[in-house]
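Lab notebook, bench 4. Still working through the backlog of constructs that have no structural model yet. Next entry is a single chain of 404 residues. Request: give me the structure tokens for it.
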Amino acid sequence: MASETKDAHVQGPLSGVRVVDLTQFVLGPYATQTLGDLGADVIKVEEPTGDRQRTNGKAPSSKTLGPVFVGLNRNKRSVALDLKTEPGRRALRRLVKSADIFIHNMRPEAVARLGFAYKDVAAMKPDIVYVEAMGYASEGPYAGRQAFDDLIQAASGATGLASLVDPNEPLKFVPSIIADKTCGLFAAIACLAALRHKEKTGEGQYVEVPMLETFTGFIMAEHLYGETYIPPIGNFGHTTTITPHRKPLQTKDGWIMVMPANQAQAAKYLELGGIPDAYGSERFLSSKGAAARVAVYNAMLAEATATRTTAEWMELCAANSVPAMVANSARGILDDPQLKTTLFEERTHETQGAYRAMKPGIRFAKTPASIRLEAPEVGRDTLEVLAELGEDGVDAAKAHGAQS
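Model written out:
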């Protein structure tokens, strides 16, 4: 395994693993940030102008540290190399020989032109774990097409999920770069699995992470539902997930989500909201059919919820063992007491000053995940990394087409 990163007193579970990262945008950076959070030494190799995601949004004093980039590229060291030049490619070849994982999301023909297709990298480092993220599996008719989050959401059926709830709803996107981030997590999982194989056998391998197949399998795991069996024995779409009654409820001053686990909990909640003996009421019993009773039950939930404040409901539900949680607005998460304690952390960036980071969610008792390095300026670590390869830093940077 490669040498330890700086701040080695924080030993994550992947401490000692070196990742050479030729990814940009969202999928790849999210994958490699995850590996970095777990302790890997991630070397982000960028062209001299940097990852194109750098200019998405504004930073206090930098044109290349936009907020999306900062949220996707902590725990990495940036090495700027011009891979269109032989010195730049020579430097990358030296880096590859020091690495455990090589990951990229370039188009296959582009990475091959540079001389870093799997066969080339494996010739330099036979035990390399080589991970290639792409839009579509190589054996399918879409192979080689360009892919972005919106294209994958569209092709995966994700844009049609709303119409399962309301047939009149048009196709629309999940308002998140969710396909990229999901596939980024699967790319990180792929890296870990291939490292495990290497540990057992000494073998490296090529790993393909196709976005469409990976994301469709993720987003449709429950929705295949009645189409799971051949011939189908039900409809497409998970019935519990696509019911129109699945929504937060309005309190006196906000919103809450309540999910009674059984009839006794539901009855208690309704009683606390001023509707005693709800299941024995004329209103409920006179409803004909299961669908009508479900509608009456949900109407009663809404009415009961409106009688108290969110804070009152949170206290009462905890005291009476009724599963419930505040429903935050998107920006409301910044004030959530749990998240303020466990997720958000105010840190100081070396060039941009104070900023809000979201700490790794996973907790390890022995090998904690952590934030050790802030998102880098382009080429921040070029001299340091090249010097670690046994060359004089300044001269090596010039000789290898690097930029610092």
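Notes after review: The radius of gyration is 26 Å. Residues 29 and 366 are 26 Å apart (CA to CA). Flag for follow-up if needed.
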